[in-house]
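User: For a reading group we're discussing how well predicted structures match intuition. Take TRAP transporter large permease protein. Before you show the prediction, I'll give you the sequence so everyone sees exactly what went in.
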Amino acid sequence: MTTLTIGFILIALLIALVLLGLQIAYALFAVGFLGIWIIRGNIELAFRMIELTAYSGIEDYLFATIPLFVLMGLLVSVSNVGRDTFEVAEELLRRVLCGLGVATVAANTVFAAVTGVSIASAAVFTRVAVPEMKRHGYRPAFAAGTVAGSSVLGMMIPPSLLLIIYGVLAEVSIGGMFIAGLIPGVLLAVGFVVMLMTVSVVWPGFVYVDPAAATAKRLDRTAPRMPVRTMLSKLLPIAVLVLLVLGGLYSGYFTPTEAGGIGAFGALLIALARRSLDRHKMWSVMKQTGAISVAILILLVAASYYSRMLSIAGLPNAIAELVQAGGFSPMGFLLFYTVVILAMGMILDSTSILLIMVPIAAPIAQGLGIDLTQFGIITVLAVEIGLLTPPFGISVFTVHNTLNDPRVSVEQIFAATMPFIGIMLAVLVLVALVPAVSTLLQ
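Assistant: Thanks. Here is the predicted 3D structure of TRAP transporter large permease protein, as structure tokens, for the group to look at:
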């Protein structure tokens, strides 16, 4: 049996272990260990490689971005900034077509700029936006689908944990990935808004329980207005935080790690100023930060070990030769790769897909002349779609569990997210066809 055959068998084994329920970190370690042992015939080398990988895998200063941005996102969530952002967006966009849907997208866009995690956005806005949308005559399933669909912005608009993980796995600049995600993130947000307004005109029964009553309520000018001073006071904290973190990052004044530290400190000041952070909540935030960060860092160590096994097996080079021998053009490879990612998104979570595929695919893409920054944006966009597709669809299940409304089934929420998936596919195709969409700001 050739080394290449062993490598393919090990990849199949890895996917099987994950599907059977083994945690991805354990699966990566097990397959990596087994692969090195079989290929080199030396179990001591397999143990030695674990030691070297654990030491060198996350020693870089850059990895501090992960706990810092996680801490910032959790502090922002505790301080109710998401609720305030939605209330202001609701006030400003109430009379726009599908105004509360647009407000949800707008609030998610701003919230994404300081959290980096789609699940956090889904949980926050399910509690905040869905009750308001239901009160204004929107269908509960549509409201839940809007929250789930727009929550994926948290994985594209920087700072994003998926962009950080991709940057580490592909060995490209995390700051560069953040900058590259800005235009596609904005395009997604604009596309969602246009889609919501179009659907509300073309298919009002999909959006509203009673379209005529909802329109009358939208045009009602007797409703009390929020004072401008109140709106400014609600928006000021998050506006300052976004300006501080992203402004410093894009101007080159901060490194990604420094931006994470500044953002976490700013989020702490906001939480303290709002008196939303007592001793118990602070302890909870610190515990969650540690748990999430350690889990991600262990995954990265496991992925590094798995990557070393792939290199020993010569798998990336062998697959690259097969791709070239098969006459794949760069665009053909991107199409094939995207289809594989979309298929995996139906059965695996986002991080697992990145950890399995990027170490294999990134060297091949680079060999074909594909810019790794563009490739990363395509990868994250395709992985994001998996957050909304059945049967896994973690964003949909997060919204469903948080909503806890027996009248709204998971199937109804999945159906309501289909238009969002259409917009995401359109942006993905645009990024693939026009590399400048992701590289223009570099």
